[in-house]
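Lab notebook page, bench 4
Experiment: in silico fold of construct C2
Operator: M.H.
Input chain length: 207 residues
Purpose: comparison with the prior construct
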Amino acid sequence: MFAHGATRPGDWKATYGTSGVLMTTTGDTPDFTSGLVPMVQAGWSDRTLFAVEGMVNSAGGLVDWMVGLGLAGSPAALTALAAAVPDPGGVTVRPALQGLGAPHNDATARAEIRGLSGATTPAHLARAVLESIAYRIREIADFTAARPEGCVPPESLPVDGGLARSDVFLQIQADILGRPVERHHQVEATALGAAMAGALGVGAATA
């Protein structure tokens, strides 16, 4: 969140790593909405900044798993394959290799692939995988915004993480979310934010 400058109530960002995370700043008040995880985003001697987090348990991990099954030679090749078709041809994927995250938080849920037919191609399956991740982020975004304490989120969604390298995926996410996404210039912005927070903590930088 620090790397994206997300410090005002309603500011948000998504990170796409092995799992995916949508985090939203809640300001000076913790939010204990069931289905989301309350967090301390940052703390100073005179102030604590809180956030809520919703997780997609299988994001980049789902892509890696499909690559391991032989759908494509690499994550980059899978996203390129997905770009070959305009839609998944009726195929849907439930990205729950490690259970289903927020707001369901169901550890017993299992992944599913539905809608396969003789017309299904590897490209359709690749696109369905990417869309499933994007729809889960959309679900968490809608759930977060609907909280009693919810704020109207900013017009665009800042993003980072390995999967954010893919222009194809980010366009899918923007289309499904219904708003632009903005990739951080440092894709590994989570590490950058941790370094920034550490610098603040030891007095090497000021907020």
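Observations: Residues 122-145 form the longest helix (24 residues). The chain has one domain: 12-201.
Next step: discuss at group meeting.
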